[in-house]
UniProtKB/TrEMBL annotation, chain A:
This is glutaminyl-tRNA synthase (glutamine-hydrolyzing). One of its GO terms (cellular component) is mitochondrion. Belongs to the amidase family. GatA subfamily. InterPro entries: Amidase, Amidase_CS, Amidase_dom, AS_sf, GatA. Its EC number is 6.3.5.7. It catalyses: L-glutamyl-tRNA(Gln) + L-glutamine + ATP + H2O = L-glutaminyl-tRNA(Gln) + L-glutamate + ADP + phosphate + H(+). Keywords: ATP-binding, Ligase, Nucleotide-binding, Protein biosynthesis.
TrEMBL record, chain B:
NCBIfam families: gatC (TIGR00135). The lineage of its organism: unclassified sequences, metagenomes, ecological metagenomes. GO terms for biological process: glutaminyl-tRNAGln biosynthesis via transamidation; regulation of translational fidelity. It comes from freshwater metagenome. Coiled coil: none annotated. Transmembrane segments: none annotated. InterPro entries: Asp/Glu-ADT_sf_sub_c, GatC. This is Unannotated protein.
Length: 475, 105
C-alpha cells in the first residue's frame, strides 16, 4: 500500500491509473469491512466514476490536482449530494442532501476519490462509536476495543487501509482521540481554517473539520486541499496557513512546553505519560528545548465543554422536527408530531445532551451555566497566550489511556466524557492540535502524543509532529 | 434575580418533564427517572466552575478576533425548491405539510 502522496504522484505522472487505485481500495473494503464496520455507506460506483474522470484528465494532459486518484473516506456528517448522510442517527433516515459540503467539493476538485461515508457516534456525540444507531465500528488493531470517537469510522478506515486519507470533525477531540486509539495521525485545525458549510452542526463555536492520515505529510496534503476561505461559512477566516507539506525546516531552537495539567495528573496512564516524555526527549535530541509548563485553567475545560457543547447542540438539533427532512412520527398536532419524532429518532446520548443543554439555557440558568462556561473559555485563552509567550508549541498526551474495551464506559456517561480531557482545551481556545502515534502500551495498542499550537500555528505544529514521527516511538 | 447553582445540584422529575417539553422530547417515565439522576450527576461535576469568581472576565463566543462579515446583496442561486421538498416527510403545493398547529377543529 502506498501513501497518499505516492499515489497522487503516480497518478499524475501516468504511472498508475486512478481506477486501479480505486479498485484496489474497494477490494480491501470488500474483504474486511464486514469485520470492521468503518462505513455507513460505501460509494463504489461513484468512486470508480470519479477515478475515471481523473484518468481522463491525465490522458488529456490536464492537471488532475494534488489528490489525483487518492481514495478519501468522509465522515457521515458531511453532506454529500444525492448520497445518504445520516450522522449515524435514525432521525435522518432516508435523507439525501441536495448539496455537497465545501470540503467534499474541494476534495473532488483536487482529484480525490470519495469511497464512502464513515460511521460515527450519533451526531458526533461520543468517544467510542458505541452511540451510533447503526452499531459500533471495531478497532482494526484489536476488534475487542473501540476505535474512539466520534470520528471512529474515519480513523478505522485509515488504520484498516480502506483509504489513505479520511475526513472527520472535532468538537472536543473527535478527530484526535480516535486517531490516537487507531494509531494514525489526526488534525484539528485552527477554528475558521476549514469551511464548515455542509458539516451538520453539533456545537458551532467548537466544531472544526480536519484530516486523518497514516503519515504527518499525508495529513498536511489533505489539510492544504480543504483549508481556505469560503463565503458560505461566515466563521471561515480570510487567509489560513498553507503549504504545510514538509518545508525542510527542523525543530532546532524551538521551545516546547509539556503541559503539566494534561500530563502529570491522576487518570493519565503512566505508560502514556512515559511516551510523551520520550517524545519530548526525541525533540530535545533534535535541538529543541523542552520544559514543563502550567496552563492552570485547563482543569476547568471539561466542565466548560459539557455546558457549552450541549447548550449549542440543543439549539442546533432543534431543526430535527419531522418537518423538512428525515423521519416523521405522526401525531394529532404539530407538538405531538415533533415530540414523537424526536423521541423515536434520537438515541440516548443525544437526548441526554439535548436535555442538559436545554436545562443549562433555560430561564434563569443561562448566565450561571453557559455564561460562566464562556468566561472560563476566556481564562483558558489567556493562560494559553501566556504559555505561548515562552513556547512555540505545547505537548501532552492525546488521551489518558490507550483504546478501551467495548462496554467499558457505557454505564457512566461521565467516565466516557473523561476520555476527552486532554483534547477539549484546544477546541475551547480555537487553537490547532494534532495527534501523532508514538509507541504502544502494554496492551499492544498505540499511544498518541498531542502537539498543540497557537491560533494559525499549523506550520510549526506540523514541523514538530514530523520530528516526533521521524523519531519512531519505541520505548 | 438569576438562579445560582449550588454545590448540590438536584434535578427533579418535574424539572426533567419541563425541560423535555421545552426540548420537544416525549420521554418515557423510565427515561424521566434516568435523566433526573444523570443530569444531577453531570451538572454536579460543573460546580467546580460555577463557584469560580469570574466577575469582570468577558465571555468568549468566538475564539478568534473576527467581526461580522458582510457581502454585497446580490441575487444568487439557491437550492431547488422541488428537490428540497422531495426530501420532506410530507409536502403539498410547494410547501411543507404539517399536522394542525392551533386548536382549530
Amino acid at each position: 500500500m502506498s501513501s497518499a502522496i505516492e499515489i497522487a504522484a503516480a497518478v499524475r505522472s501516468g504511472a498508475r491509473t486512478a481506477r486501479s487505485v480505486a479498485e484496489e481500495h474497494l477490494a480491501t473494503i470488500a474483504s474486511s469491512e464486514g469485520e470492521i464496520h468503518a462505513f455507513n455507506h460505501v460509494t463504489a460506483d461513484a468512486a470508480l466514476a470519479q477515478a475515471d474522470e481523473v484518468d481522463a484528465k491525465v490522458a488529456r494532459g490536464e492537471d488532475p490536482g494534488p489528490l489525483a486518484g487518492v481514495p478519501v473516506a468522509l465522515k457521515d456528517n458531511l453532506c454529500t449530494r444525492g448520497v445518504p448522510t445520516t450522522c449515524s442517527s435514525r432521525i435522518l433516515d432516508g435523507w439525501l442532501p441536495p448539496y455537497n459540503a465545501t470540503v467534499v467539493e474541494r476534495v473532488l476538485a483536487a482529484g480525490g476519490v470519495p469511497v464512502g461515508k464513515t460511521n460515527l457516534d450519533e451526531f458526533a456525540m461520543g468517544s467510542s462509536t458505541e452511540n451510533s444507531a447503526f452499531g459500533p465500528t471495531l478497532n482494526p488493531l484489536d476488534p475487542s476495543r473501540v476505535p474512539g470517537g466520534s470520528s471512529g469510522g474515519s480513523a478505522a478506515a485509515v488504520a484498516a487501509r480502506f483509504a489513505p486519507l479520511s475526513l472527520g470533525s472535532d468538537t472536543g477531540g473527535s478527530i484526535r482521540q480516535p486517531a490516537s486509539f487507531c494509531g494514525v495521525v489526526g488534525v484539528k485545525p485552527t477554528y475558521g481554517v476549514v469551511s464548515r458549510y455542509g458539516l451538520i452542526a453539533f456545537a458551532s463555536s467548537l466544531d472544526q473539520i480536519g484530516p486523518f492520515a497514516a503519515t504527518v505529510d499525508d495529513a498536511a496534503l489533505l489539510l492544504d486541499v480543504i483549508s481556505g476561505h469560503d463565503r458560505m461559512d461566515s466563521t471561515s477566516i480570510a487567509t489560513p496557513p498553507t503549504a504545510l507539506l514538509n518545508d525542510g525546516a527542523d525543530v532546532a531552537g524551538l521551545r516546547v512546553g509539556l503541559v503539566t495539567e494534561l500530563t502529570d495528573v491522576e487518570g493519565i496512564a503512566p505508560e502514556v505519560r512515559a511516551a510523551v516524555e520520550r517524545a519530548a526527549s526525541a525533540l530535545e535530541a533534535q535541538g529543541a528545548r523542552v520544559e514543563r509548563i502550567s496552563v492552570p485553567s485547563c482543569i476547568y475545560g471539561l466542565s466548560a465543554y459539557y455546558l457549552i457543547a450541549p447548550a449549542e447542540a440543543s439549539s442546533n438539533l432543534a431543526r430535527y422536527d419531522g418537518v423538512r427532512y428525515g423521519l416523521r412520527v405522526d401525531g394529532d398536532d404539530v407538538y405531538e408530531m415533533n415530540s414523537a419524532t424526536r423521541d423515536a429518532g434520537f438515541g440516548a446520548e443525544v437526548k441526554r445532551r439535548i436535555m442538559l443543554g436545554t436545562y443549562a439555557l433555560s430561564a434563569g440558568f443561562y448566565d450561571a451555566y453557559y455564561g460562566q462556561a464562556q468566561r472560563v473559555r476566556t481564562l483558558i485563552i489567556r493562560d494559553f497566550a501566556s504559555a505561548y509567550e515562552r513556547f512555540d508549541v505545547l505537548l501532552s498526551p492525546t488521551t489518558p489511556t490507550t483504546a478501551f474495551k467495548f462496554g467499558a464506559k457505557t454505564e457512566d456517561p461521565f467516565s466516557m466524557y473523561l476520555s476527552d480531557i486532554c483534547t477539549i482545551a484546544s477546541n475551547l481556545a480555537g487553537h490547532p492540535a494534532m495527534s501523532v502515534p508514538f509507541g504502544v502500551g502494554s496492551d499492544g495498542m498505540p499511544i498518541g502524543v498531542q502537539v498543540l499550537a497557537p491560533a494559525l500555528g499549523e506550520p510549526v505544529m506540523f514541523r514538530v509532529a514530523r520530528a516526533i514521527e521521524s523519531a519512531g516511538g519505541a520505548a | 434575580m438569576p438562579k445560582q447553582p449550588t454545590e448540590q445540584v438536584s434535578i427533579t422529575r418535574s424539572d426533567v418533564e419541563h425541560v423535555a417539553m421545552l426540548a420537544r422530547l416525549a420521554l418515557t417515565p423510565e427515561e424521566v427517572g434516568e435523566f433526573a439522576e444523570q443530569l444531577t450527576a453531570i451538572l454536579g461535576h460543573a460546580t467546580d466552575i460555577s463557584s469560580l469568581d469570574l466577575v469582570g472576565v468577558p465571555t468568549t463566543a468566538h475564539p478568534l478576533p473576527v467581526t461580522n462579515v458582510l457581502r454585497e446583496d446580490v441575487i444568487g442561486t439557491s437550492l431547488d425548491r422541488d428537490e428540497v421538498l422531495a426530501a420532506a416527510p410530507s409536502a403539498e403545493e410547494g410547501r411543507f405539510r404539517v399536522p394542525r398547529i392551533m386548536g382549530e377543529a
